[in-house]
Amino acid sequence: MGNQVRDAEQTKDDNVTAPDAASSLEMEHKRMDAGARFVLKSKGTWLHCGYHLTTSIVAPSILSLPYAFVRLGWAASVISLFLAAVVTFYNYNLICLVLEHHAKQGNRLLRFREMGTVILGPSWGRYYVGPIQVIVCLAAVIGTILLGGISLKAIYVVSKPEGTMKLYQFVIIFGCVVLLLAQIPSFHSLRHITLFSLVLCFAYSACSTGGSIHAGNSSLAPPKDYSIPGDTKNRIFGVFHAVAIIASTYGNGIIPEIQATLAPPVTGKMFKGLCICYTVIIVTFFSVAISGYWAFGNQSQQIIFGNFISELGQFLVPRWFIRMTNIFTLLQLIAVGAVYMQPSNEILETYLCDPNKGEYSLRNVIPRLVSRSLVVVAATTLAGMLPFFGDLSAVIGAIGFMPLDFVIPVIFYNITFKPSKKSFIFWLNIVIALVFSVFSLVGTVAAIRQVVLDAKNYKLFADI
């Protein structure tokens, strides 16, 4: 399928009008803004892109996949996980092809909102694509800080069961760590951190899989029940809720910004990076999801590590194992938070910093320090207030990741390359856009409904 798409791109290149002089000058001006110069430095290789892509997708949100399986059952869950992998790989490749096409035309696009503006029009880029991306990225930062706090608390509870510290306190501690890493100046500067992150995602995924298998075989494990809970109404909403969680797990939302870190020429480099990323995805997503659901069935919690301690407080895996697993998770979460801060960092520096001054001049360092710190403080506050990680993932997936990663890419491709209405690619893209638009709308309702239901059991700054 990838070869068909690339062949279609080649046949259409000569038929697309190159941007006029005014448009070229406008885009050149955008390249010279502070956000592009200081945050989106185009110096990386395809390997670096592979590291960034893996960190942005293979994040600890995969630990909620067994929880999503609860709403779907075995067959539908595995099929949904596989289809989401195929569709997102296809869609991300389409975005890369569109970006490469514009780069060949002398109009390299560096941001998602730029793609929306050039392809769909100024209003779409300014009021739809741009805002949705910012919401998704900030929500991902909030979820990252929350999960970091949960992991810290897990280590604390294992080490000091009689301790009195609350979840929000651990969220604040982890938020302070993210605050420090948020000051790293550019996306390209994170390449060594995201490489380390790639290794870590293998580590905690292996721990999750091994721990689930060990716990599932333990005499203390709960009885395995794979029936879908709830009445007919709850089951229907549960399906869309689960699909939204899976969508958010595969979500990225920053493909153009990652591509922007590539040194020119960009042709073919992102595809290689995607191949690295999806190799890791196949290994980690399926092992964590299948082992967790096998071990705990419809008792799977929002974060599978929560199942490693029974409701009676009995440890189903060794204490040292829980500590080690959560440390791996914590370290990778720091990198994930730093990656998803990049779009907001770029926007803030575009408006607050001076591209004609040095990157480390006082004129640019102070706005960078203040603005990034305020973003992390706000995200940490919200993470402590709303400790519903699984439900938060579903809302993010339905409102943000599903439109950005499942719907918009195929629209971008069809508008850019104008494939024949008789071609397979054209109708495949139309079907993908329609199906996932429906899933996005219904999934949003289902996810918000679940938040409302769960909110009855929790309060602000709840200790869970």
Automatic annotation (TrEMBL):
InterPro entries: AA_transpt_TM. It is found in: Membrane. Residues 1-27 are annotated as: Disordered. Keywords: Amino-acid transport, Membrane, Transmembrane, Transmembrane helix, Transport. It holds the Pfam family Aa_trans. The chain crosses the membrane at residues 50-69, 75-99, 134-155, 167-184, 196-216, 236-255, 275-296, 320-341, 369-389, 395-413, 425-448. GO terms for cellular component: membrane. It comes from the Eukaryota. Residues 43-448 form the Amino acid transporter transmembrane domain. The keyword Transmembrane helix applies. One of its GO terms (biological process) is amino acid transport. Its main location: membrane. Residues 1-15 have a biased composition (Basic and acidic residues). Coiled coil: none annotated. This is Amino acid transporter transmembrane domain-containing protein. It comes from Dioscorea zingiberensis. The lineage of its organism: Eukaryota, Viridiplantae, Streptophyta, Embryophyta, Tracheophyta.
